[in-house]
Amino acid sequence: MDKLICPKFEKAMGLLSQRWTGLILYQLLSGPQRFCTIESSVGVSGRVLSERLKDLENEGIIKREVFPETPVRIEYSLTDKGLALEPLMKELEKWSQNWLEA
Amino acid sequence: MDKLICPKFEKAMGLLSQRWTGLILYQLLSGPQRFCTIESSVGVSGRVLSERLKDLENEGIIKREVFPETPVRIEYSLTDKGLALEPLMKELEKWSQNWLEA
DNA sequence: TAAACTTACTTACATAATGTAACTAACTAA
DNA sequence: TTAGTTAGTTACATTATGTAAGTAAGTTTA
Questions:
Q1: How would residue A52 be classed by pLDDT, with cut points 50, 70 and 90?
Q2: Is the confidence at residue B58, as pLDDT, over 70?
């Protein structure tokens, strides 16, 4: 009777169910951003943000680029795989506007 | 510089970011179901399932109905608010099919 | 020259969330 | 009377997260 749910779907939901991951990806939809920007706009601690960014990079959903300026600039951005989440995010925007109160 | 994200969107993402919540709702898209069915198909423990169902009921996303049969049957089903998540779930299905490996 | 500043982290520790397994309530069947 | 059912709850161990301080590499300031 177990496991009727598609493993790929389960994995996808598992990714988004990690606390902060969804908001981090949503934030990156508006363009490449650096660590401290994500940290303050999303409201996630550096400790967890660091963990999430590594996971997302390992999943191929975001990429990390180093610009050796002064001080060093490191930008995180969505890969094609990450950008492909946009329609889903738009649906969540719609749902939240239609069904949630402020 | 903080908090550029819409509070409604944040709340919606907060709901789906609770572990198991997304899968529970996805499972209920296929129709009303009882506690033990959700428990085994989703793979969540009774302890957490109980907690999630209460939260979702409080949010008006699911409803709980008691049928005084023998033994008692209790069914959980989506409200209109819950059903409205279907397009989002379809997008996640698509994404997972297109971008994830088994 | 040394103290202070910047970003991008990491570490240590406390608290909160989840997993596991046993237990309860209400009722029926054997 | 004993056992079985569903729908939970409880106690306790483990894991995840929050908080705050610390680190590394480099630059600017005093």
A1: very high
A2: yes
pLDDT in tens, B32-53: 999 999 999 999 999 999 999 9
Listed as ranges, the nucleotides of chain C within 7 A of a protein C-beta are: 6-12, 17-22, 26-29
Give the CATH number of domain B19-99; options: 3.40.630.10, 3.40.50.300, 3.40.30.10, 1.10.10.10. 1.10.10.10
Phi-psi category of residue B23: left, alpha or beta, with phi > 0 → left and psi -120 to 50 → alpha: alpha
**Residues of A in Cβ contact (< 8 Å) with B37:** 1
Question: What are the pLDDT digits (tens) for A66-87?
Answer: 998 888 999 999 999 999 999 9
A46: number of Cβ within 10 Å = 11
Contacts of A42 in chain B (CB under 8 A): 5
The answer to whether A43 contacts B3, with C-beta atoms less than 8 Å apart, is: yes
Cβ neighbors of B1 (< 8 A, separation 6 or more) are A37, A40, A41
Distance CA B90, CA B25 (A): 12
Average confidence (pLDDT) over B7-20: 97
